[in-house]
Amino acid sequence: MFGVVFPNRSFPMDISAFSQIDTFHWILDMNTFVGEAYDHVREVCIFLLNNFTLPPDKALSIYIQSPGSPFLFCGAVTLSRPSAVLSLPWPEPGEQLQLTGADSTPISAKIGVSVEDLASLPSLDVAAEKKIERMAMKVGENLFNFMQSFCGVDGSRLIVPMDILDRWFKKFQDRAKRDPQYLKGFAL
Asked: Hikeshi-like N-terminal domain: from which residue to which, for each copy (predicted)?
């Protein structure tokens, strides 16, 4: 049905590495692979296998769970997007670490895979949206700081020169042309 690989950390694994919970849900116990260092695993590549046909209105969703925390959606693959490299933004472990039966060892981190309705999912790649959001915030902050250096105050209003946006944009473009690393700094 599907396979996963942790870039630079594992060989490809198929569905047999996961515990099947029911017809549409699988869990991978991260203790099996990395023990308590699960948060060092920052990406997963998930892919549909050639002989598996996922219905066009369904998606194979990826979730992560730190010990004691709820599952967090990371992204999905579909028939039209049969593979994806997804970031794993592990949440902080929950305050109430649940304990398993008799041995009282903390529950480990998990990766969950689920077949779901495509229409019910927020976005197929949550990490990409977060990167875009962070970049937009940093560009906006850069503009604000530039404008602030030219502002005057009139009561409760800031007064800025009429051409301030043109000046900022020209400076922004010139800097990006001179220094290829400049824009990369906004994407971090």
From this structure: 18-121
